[in-house]
Amino acid sequence: MIKTAIIGVGNMGSKYAEIISNEEIGHIKIEAMTRVRGHYAELLKDLIDTGLPIYESADALFDAYDEGQIDLDAVIIATPHFSHEEIAVKAFARGLHVLCDKPSGVYSRQARIMEEAADKSGKVFSMVFNQRTNPLYKEIRSIIQSGKYGALKRVNWVVTDWYRPDNYFKSSSWHATYAKDGGGVLLNQCPHNLDLLQWMCTNPVKVQGFCAEGHYHDIEVEDDVTCFMQWENGATGTFVTSTGDAPGINRLEISLDEAMLVCEGGKLRIGELEPELGMKEAEYRKTSNDFFKKIKGTWKEVEVAASEKPYNQIIQGFVDELLGNGKSLADGREGRKSLILTNAIYLSSWKQKMVELPQIGSDKELEFEKEFEEILDQKRYKRQ
């Protein structure tokens, strides 16, 4: 039985607590929680009434662990972004496994330090990237990685179904602030999308971001983003997101050498070129004398199963790895990849120029970390 503590029982922490306490996951139990207040205390009343220890902070919980008051194998971190690194490092130093909510942190340096602490401890480090369980995205990744339709040509993803009213940002003192939240729609709503983007297509090598701060809401962070991307092979793409568009959409288009993939409304369609052209598109392009042919493609809808209980799958994968029965669905080292992409979009927008993503483990990564942090810290402390 895996003994775990949930650190940070707010919206997501309470969800994880419900899943585990309802015994929806095998071989795991909650031994302690931190910061359970208001609505969430009522929601978890039955669990709390069992006498489960509740601590005011992660440090208080770790003190209790050090003093032998509680016994733990792992922690689940669901606190505000800036604190993820510190809590994870302290957990790893105590020989505890870590499942961390997205994103790894605010600075990509934080993700790197978490990885280094995990490597040193030899303990399991996993991320809550629950959208990786979605069969649609799993199928898209499989298609791209198979090379069946050739190389990547273009990616366009419009994710504007993150609409939020003004009162959403007023509901918590840490929402929509650089000082406490670290950013806006890119860091709060879109970590899943950016993780999926790099997971399916790999990270681009260059980005040009345009982040509009307070465009639709009276907030200091970005609520409207357009990003241009370029991949190593010359493929290009755009990523557009907002919390102020209505009605919003979530439409992903991926153009490959021999097909177009379109994912929208829970459906995946593939437009294949070869059945229509009778040859590879590159060959047709070089030999055809039909100057004005509109290539329509032969379209088919791909049947995929519905996504079921994604958070359960994430927690179960984490438990399975701890027990030696499988692997986590998202290794913690994946968190740095999407966080570097997020940081690069911000940095590009702030500097008003295209920014290259550094190779992980390179000297340029350290330079990138420093440059990003210096500018973000100026924005944080300027508003405090």
Question: Could you describe the 3D structure shown?
Answer:
This protein is α/β, with parallel strands linked by helices. The chain folds into two domains: 2-129 and 310-330, Rossmann fold (3-Layer(aba) Sandwich); 132-307 and 338-382, 2-Layer Sandwich (Dihydrodipicolinate Reductase, domain 2). The chain is 38% helix and 22% strand. It contains 15 helices and 15 strands. Strands 14-13-12-11-7-10-9-8-15 form a nine-stranded mixed beta sheet. The radius of gyration is 22 Å and the shape is globular.
Strand line-up across the major sheet: 14-13-12-11-7-10-9-8-15
Structural class designation: alpha/beta
Fourth-level CATH superfamily of the largest domain: Dihydrodipicolinate Reductase, domain 2
**CATH class label of the largest domain:** Alpha Beta
Shape descriptor reads globular
Number of domains: 2
Distance between the amino and carboxyl termini: 45 Å
Q: Give a count of the beta strands, DSSP E runs of length 2 or more.
A: 15
> Major sheet, described briefly?
9 strands, mixed
What value does the average pLDDT take? Answer: 95
Total helical segments: 15
Low-confidence stretches: none
Helix-strand pattern, N to C?
Answer: EHEHHEHEHEHEHEHHHEEEEEEHHEHHEH
Question: Short summary of the structure?
Answer:
With 384 residues, the protein is of the alpha/beta class. The protein has helices at 11-21, 38-43, 45-48, 58-66, 84-93, 108-121, 135-146, 166-170, 185-188, 191-201, 274-277, 281-287, 310-322, 335-351, 363-382; strands spanning 2-7, 28-34, 54-55, 74-77, 97-101, 125-128, 152-159, 206-213, 222-230, 236-242, 250-256, 259-264, 267-272, 298-302, 355-356.
